Amino acid sequence: MKFLMRRLSILTVLALLTSVCQAQKDLKIIKERIVADLMETKIDDSAVGNLMAKMNVDGSFKEINYDDLSRTAGFPQGRHTSNLVYMAKAYKTKKSKYYQSKPLKALIENGLTFWVKNDFVGDNWHNNQITTPTNLGNLMLVMGDELPKDLVTKAQPMIFRANMNASGARPSGDRIVIAGILAKNLLFQGDYQEFDKIIKIIEGELKFATGQRGMQHDYSFHHRVDRVNNTDSYGYGKYANAYGEWSYYVAGTQYAFSKEKINQLVDYYLDGIYKQSVYGVYKDVSVQNRSISHKGTFEPRGTQEIERVLVSTDYRKDELEEIIRLRKGKAKPSASFAKFFWQTEHFVFQRPNFYTTVRMFSTRNRNMEVPYNGPGKTTHHRADGTNYLMLRGDEYQNIWPVYDWQKISGTTIVQKPQLPGPDDIQKDGLTDFVGAVTDGMYGAVVFDFKSPHDPLSAKKSWFFFDEEYVCLGTGINAESNFPVATTLNQVLMRSEVRMMQDGKQQNVPKGSRTLQNVKWVHHDKIGYIFPQPVTVNLSNQVETGTWASITDEKNISDERVSEDVFTLWFDHGKKPEGASYQYIVVPDVTEQQLNETSQSNRSIEILSNSPTLQAVRQSQLGITQLAFYQAGKLEIQPNVEVRLDSPGMAMLKMREGRLSELTLADPSRKLSRMLITVSGIYNARGDNYRTVTDQEQNSTLFIVDLPKGVYLGKSVALKMP
Q: What's the confidence (pLDDT) of residue 608?
């Protein structure tokens, strides 16, 4: 028995040693992957030489203001540590002339000495818990054991400001980033037990957090409890990509993330992030918040994030590889879809030749992000029913310094002499009847709009079809002495502007003017049709401004910027009562095509545009979309009537006079079921609906159960047998 026990003990010890040995091998692999990732940076020797020349005797850099640590300064001190990392990469890059350069190494040590001596702490927590720990941690990994031990020791407390008890380590994107910084430093230190704990924390962050910070059940992302859409910023660059980065680092090791988690990340990429990107390739300005105040470059997004998840899974591989081809310019857009992010009040609609969105807010969320640290101070109205339209993706690229922030595409806004201050940007929504009905291919949007900034209200709706969409507004009331405007589009001017006025096709000379009796306007392959000739305002001229004027950040260029801008809007005048508008937007159309199809209004029938009901029918498609602000009925085509017993939205697809598909949604999120009556006899039943027929009235009552809980606001689609 003793021999057996001794033998078992030996086997146990051997198993433990084997496990430890394997763990050490895995950790070495992970560390090597991280360092290899860091060393992917392309080194410019001339840039390295410039940095060396700019370093002062005390280890500081010329041209960096080390004194201003305020939030609006943008933490210029962070350039010091990022410079050191770049220099370290040159020191370790064999192709660089500075490879193993002793003078360069001495400067790196001198620069690190300066930093640990001064320990610059910015007023923004991000500077201290992410920026500095990231750079110093990367410096340790790149230089390895070549840094003096005393400097490494002195830098550690600064790196460890990135820890799981830090104020910024709250659930959402920052938590993964901070955990990742900590994990890298633990690898550098060889603290494998703590590393194992942190990896488990990172893996566990990929989860639904609907109603809280994080990924919502509709695959949008909320960084804060204000429930503002942050999918494109924190939800992409920090949350998804940071998670994908670590899934790649640990792939094939005992620390590998579960396939279930990786697949959920793929769903988030494809059904959340990429559906809020133009063709899955370019940034969508409608989901940008503060970052809109920064000058950007127009280029396709990279493919690394996709290539990394494909290391661990082949789930939805074809869709991911299609995005790679699109981003590399090896394929043209082919996807068509409609999606409403009901947790975020954001609607997206794409066809292979155009991408458009509607951004709103309600009592369930706030309108815009607070302009933290300065940028975004002009964004008061960017969720007021904003409707951007993109064919290429660059239509609004860097327009913002010259932008009229009270004439935002799709919005109805009081034209005040100036915007309120930045502290008055973020507001709670005042109405709950905000939402959309969609079957995944077509859809309609409704916005019972009450401005939290001005004495203004309006009933706004949008109806989306394959080759055009319809915009309706009614019940526009304001108690302001300033004019109210509804803007069709404000965009960079990329072509001459043409119009049909008084029955004649003609150029619109540059300038700003009011035009009467206009049937359509054409600019940059986009047509705007008015069902009946209208009076409209049009500006096509040079506008000027500065980047410094749209942010309270310091060190922003105040150089004058000039751009040609096209703006088209309705002027509802001062104190409008019951004003309305209606227009059809036709993307990717020639002037000739626009003119030929405008006479029939492209088979569009505006069935109702009243404060109780807005409805549109596309007769060629046989699709009718309706937004009932209260219970009501409407004949949608000869001998076919629709009656809804409550407020709500409906979309009906008719084929040869018969209902083929019915889609319903409750924008108010208050109903458990909807009752809708449609002409015709339909004996049908499903898991979430049943019918009651009335032979005498030749009608069918559909009793439809609606989604519950986190799915409140999502549409229900029924196909008739």
A: 98
DSSP string, 8-53: HHHHHHHHHHHHHHHHHHHHHHHHHHHHHHHTTSPP-HHHHHHHHH
Dist. CA 433–CA 629, nearest whole Å: 8
Which tokens sit at 169?
């380590």
Average pLDDT over residues 93-97: 97
Give the model confidence (pLDDT) of 113-139 as tens digits. 999 999 999 999 999 999 999 999 999
Q: Write down the pLDDT at residue 7.
A: 62
How far, in Å, CA of 224 to CA of 167, rounded? 13
Cα maximum dimension of the chain: 107
What digits encode the pLDDT tens for the residues 526-580?
999 999 999 999 999 999 999 999 999 999 999 999 999 999 999 999 999 999 9
Burial class (CB in 10 A: 0-12, 13-18, 19+), 533: middle
DSSP run (H or E) holding 244? helix 241-249
Residues in CB range of 190: below 8 A, 6 or more apart: none
Tens of pLDDT along 178-218?
A: 999 999 999 999 988 899 999 999 999 999 999 999 999 99
661 membership: H or E segment, kind and range: strand 658-665
Q: Decide if 340 contacts 669 (C-beta within 8 A).
A: no
> Cβ neighbours of residue 343 under 8 Å, at least 6 residues apart?
210, 216, 217, 218, 220, 222, 227, 710, 713
Q: Are 615 and 634 in contact (CB under 8 A)?
A: yes
Residue 380: name the closest of 426, 417, 345 by CA: 426
3-state secondary structure of 401: helix
pLDDT of residue 23: 81
Q: What is the bridge-based pairing of β-strands 511-523 and 526-545?
A: antiparallel
Residues 213-255: pLDDT tens digits? 999 999 999 999 999 999 999 999 999 999 999 999 999 999 9
Dihedral in degrees, nearest 10, Cα atoms 424, 427, 431, 434: 110
What does the DSSP assignment read for 279-309?
Answer: TTTEE-GGG--GGGGS--------SHHHHHH
- 333, burial (CB in 10 Å: exposed 0-12, middle 13-18, buried 19+): middle
Quickly tell me which residue has 């910070």 as its tokens: 213
What are phi and psi for residue 561, nearest 5 degrees? Answer: -115, 135
Task: Say if residues 181 and 134 touch (Cβ distance below 8 Å).
Answer: yes
Question: How does residue 49 score in pLDDT terms, banded at 50, 70 and 90?
Answer: very high
Q: Check pLDDT > 70 for residue 448.
A: yes
Task: Kindly give, in sequence order, each residue whose CB lies less than 8 Å from that of residue 147, ignoring residues fewer than 6 positions away.
Answer: 108, 109, 112, 139, 140
Classify the C-alpha dihedral 242-243-246-252 as positive or negative.
Answer: negative
Distances (CA, A) of 689 to 462, 647, 685, 706: 27, 18, 6, 9
Q: What is the DSSP letter of 586?
A: E
- 8 Å CB contact between 182 and 164: yes
CA distance 519 to 516: 9
As a residue count, the chain comes to 721
Q: In the chain, what percentage of residues exceed pLDDT 70?
A: 97
Residue owning tokens 């950040």: 553
Choose among 430, 412, 378: nearest CA to 573: 412
> For all residues of the chain together, what is the average pLDDT?
96
Lowest pLDDT segment from 69-73, 154-158, 190-194: 190-194
